[in-house]
Design a protein that fits this description.
single chain, TIM Barrel, alpha/beta
Length: 298
Amino acid sequence: MEHPEAALLTTAEVETILSKGAHAGCTEALFTFGERPEEVPGFKARLSELGYETIIDHLVELCKLSISKGLLPHCNPGVIGKDELEKLKPYNASMGLMLETTALVEAHRGCAGKDPKARLETIENAGKSRIPFTTGILIGIGETHEDRVRSIEAITRLHEKYGHIQEVIVQNFAPKPGTGMASYPAPGIAEIKKTVTMARELLPPDVAVQVPPNLINPKELVKCGASDLGGISPVTIDYINPEEAWPGIPQLREMAGVPLRERLPIYPGFVREKRYSKELAPLINKYSDPEGFRKPYL
């Protein structure tokens, strides 16, 4: 499957996607736009045509639209400031930013948004704002196993201080033709299993380890301590890895090899703590069971 041309979606285009998701029984709307899109030539002019001064202002309105459609927003807006996190907080069940690695790797050269210090600062600011948060590491971008240990340790320290990390994704890098990293070798299953095992051993028990089921069969990784398979969509492709199709629910159950329970974008523990805004309360109360998982969907 070819990657669709990157574009700033209009409110009407987003509304169409949200309506399809709601009709299909989804509970989450994931919003992402990469690193610092306003630095792309022509982006700010296009944003202005839509009536917004910043991408965060546009995103806030799309989150409100998502809630009105019955979907809980989860935003991955890259490296942003604490004031921007606070703007988004009332309208997000959770938010996320992949740490990727604390190491300075060649793959990140020339990309200011990939600076580990800046990414850690965003994750920490989310903790200060008490935002349920998803982060993760990327395997196979030039880092060593020791670098991965240091990355997991950095995430652990932030969670021990703020208690806001709900899950850590251990994601295998997938080389793509036509990119600067096309020649990078993909990590093998033994390396991924070693990393998942390490993450489970070092992370606090209340932080889940997630693996993406469209990038790797999770069965062996569940045995290593992975306890979350992320989200799948019956409506859209994985825009980050468009060549990798989502598994269906029956396939996902077979791949996991263990019983699965559906959760919301905000983790059950945070649902029970009521760590969400009044704007989100009606939907979360509608969708969650007494344990904080999603009620059975018929």
